[in-house]
Please model this.
Amino acid sequence: MRLLSKVSFIVVHCADTKSSMHVTVSDLRNWHTLPKPKGNGWSDIGYHYFIKFDGTTHNCRDNKYQGAHCKAVNSKSLAICLEGGYGGIDNFTEIQKHSLACLIAELKEKHNKNAEVVGHSHFDDKKCPSFNVVEWHEDFISE
Model:
């Protein structure tokens, strides 16, 4: 794994799961590491953090290593994945988004106060993470 350079972006993703599904970090890791067609065949989970519907935050990939989540910015970003977002629907919970905001603030304080907070869709033509992260983050910090 390659070391992460300066953090310029914090990229928010979704697991593309239904509200009725309960995904674990092990599930995510399997989806990323199992050989194709069951997984992506990567060396590790692509995200640095995973936030469940109940707001619990789980460490996934060590922050010193670049992620495998968005080719355009893997080398200069940290990745947070939210449980949910199936079919492009914002089915995230308030506590989950609160945990997301707290984690973002912590990461910006630790790595780069000027890091841009964006969704995966900011770089790729995808619905991920199923809501406009830039608008949400600006609204959240202005409250």
Observations:
- Residues 9-142 form a domain with the Lysozyme-like fold (CATH 3.40.80.10).
- Helices lie at 25-33, 94-111, 133-142.
- The longest strand covers residues 9-14.
- The chain has one domain: 9-142.
